Task: structure prediction
Amino acid sequence: MAFFFLHPRCPPHYPRLSGHWVMSLLCAPYLYNNVRLYTRKQHLVDVTEIFNLLHWEKKKRLFKLAYVVVLLFFAVFWMIYSALEDD
Result:
């Protein structure tokens, strides 16, 4: 039953449960973080201070990379699932 809420092709009388909004909800935290960094002018790294912040910056960028890989996995999964789905 839980899979029904994420299914991309629900009956038309369930527009909010169609699943098309799931990927945008999953991408919202990443977008929020990028906008927040840009508005605080922290989206650029100062080359003179990079070695003082290297450990923290490395952790942050690896976390963002893992998040994007998970989003890519979900996108590829839904694409393959939609292509192979029997109507």
